[in-house]
């Protein structure tokens, strides 16, 4: 269900409502002028006032056409329309008694709309302009004795400003300031609440997707256990039976290592799941952990040729990471290998506040338009990919309050930048020096 609010809807909807309000104002003005002409028989410059009403009607029609043809409206456009309303109202009041006119309080209507829909930077100028116009109407106007406060008391129009009129001006000033201050704040609070609710709904949708994927992953991991054990047994027998040729023996050895790694990965997955269930997150040496992630990646992707750099000047720290963070880094490394396994550059550095992980692959690069949507479920730039790996990676990093950016590299390929906060790291005095290798 979609809900609309004057305080929180888009400028397009706000402008549409403003035009509706203006339409009612024009209708009420025409009816008032008709009553004044035929019933009250007041001497007003009707032609000039009708020109103003006609001009404002034309502006309203033009904006209605704009809304039909365009799907975008800015706050600045709403500001300009409210300014037009204030100027038109001032001109009408100028021809109808100025500040003595009882309809002078209509100045508060555009100010209320501005306070509810615009930022305070745009609302404040409208308040100042309205107050200035109101004040000028005390001194510059076409007198209308029939509506002057002194009229019923036998006064004349050539007199000083009445106490009643001054009181109306002060009431307008106080009302305008209160509306600007409180309504603007309330509107901002509503906008923030809507943004928070929208973010919560998005997080809930993401969590539902993650739960579905996690359920499938758990079932798949359980189903893979038996086939992997069978394959490992058969590979061991084949290795004993086929020692020659040497190429076949080497391939069987490699396959056996890969299967062993898959088996240990499933066992590690089960162990980590048990730790998370118990609320236990182990303390890890960040240098050793990053090196293990990269070594496991190289073991699974023997075709990769990469230059790995772990900054030796980084402090030795112990951290507590969710297991999903390591898997997320592995996903990013695998994406780089999928793009082009040759000449991948991986650089790792950190300080006491955050870890920086950069990966530069020499693949075909990434389309900036596609990059904006990467990280969403089933969005991918791979021909046969499903986008789940990057979706899970983005979700895990977001939960950890990190950031992930993929962009084209000036030298070609894609540059992946991962930034992770390090919360309360502790010094580790037993880590070995870092290294650079290929």
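^ Assign residues to that structure.
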């Amino acid at each position: 269900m979609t809900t609309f609010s004057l305080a929180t809807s888009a400028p397009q909807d706000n402008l549409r409502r403003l035009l509706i309000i203006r339409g009612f104002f024009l209708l009420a003005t025409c009816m008032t002028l008709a009553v004044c002409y035929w019933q009250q028989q007041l001497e007003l410059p009707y032609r000039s006032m009708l020109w103003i009403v006609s001009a404002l009607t034309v502006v309203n029609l033009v904006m209605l056409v704009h809304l039909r043809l365009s799907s975008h409206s800015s706050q600045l456009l709403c500001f300009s329309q409210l300014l037009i309303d204030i100027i038109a109202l001032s001109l009408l009041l100028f021809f109808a008694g100025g500040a003595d006119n009882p309809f002078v309080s209509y100045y508060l209507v555009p100010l209320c709309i501005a306070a509810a829909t615009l930022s305070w930077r745009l609302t404040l100028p409208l308040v100042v302009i309205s107050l200035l116009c109101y004040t000028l109407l005390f001194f510059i106007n076409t007198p209308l004795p029939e509506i002057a406060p002194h009229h019923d008391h036998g006064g004349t129009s050539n007199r000083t400003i009445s106490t009643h009129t001054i009181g109306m001006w002060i009431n307008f000033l106080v009302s305008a300031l209160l509306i600007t201050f409180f309504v603007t704040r309330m509107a901002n609070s509503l906008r923030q609440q809507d943004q928070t609710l929208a973010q919560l709904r998005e997080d809930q949708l993401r969590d539902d997707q993650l739960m579905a994927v996690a359920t499938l992953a758990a079932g798949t991991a359980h189903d893979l256990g038996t086939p992997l054990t069978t394959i490992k047994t058969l590979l061991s027998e084949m290795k004993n039976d086929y020692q020659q040729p040497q190429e076949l023996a080497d391939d069987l050895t490699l396959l056996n290592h890969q299967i062993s790694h898959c088996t240990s990965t499933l066992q590690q997955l089960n162990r980590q799941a048990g730790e998370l269930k118990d609320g236990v997150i182990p303390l890890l040496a960040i240098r050793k952990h990053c090196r293990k992630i990269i070594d496991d990646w190289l073991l699974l992707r023997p075709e990769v040729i990469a230059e790995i750099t772990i900054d030796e000047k980084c402090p030795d720290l112990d951290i507590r990471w969710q297991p999903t963070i390591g898997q997320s880094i592995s996903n990013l490394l695998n994406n780089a290998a999928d793009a082009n396994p040759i000449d991948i550059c991986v650089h790792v550095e950190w300080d006491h506040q955050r870890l920086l992980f950069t990966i530069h692959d020499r693949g075909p690069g990434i389309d900036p338009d596609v990059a904006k949507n990467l990280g969403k479920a089933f969005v991918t730039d791979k021909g046969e990919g499903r986008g789940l790996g990057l979706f899970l990676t983005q979700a895990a990093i977001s939960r950890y309050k990190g950031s992930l950016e993929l962009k084209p590299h000036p030298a070609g390929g894609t540059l992946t930048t991962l930034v992770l906060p390090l919360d309360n790291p502790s010094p580790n005095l037993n880590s070995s020096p870092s290294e650079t290798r290929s």
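The chain has eleven helices and nine strands.
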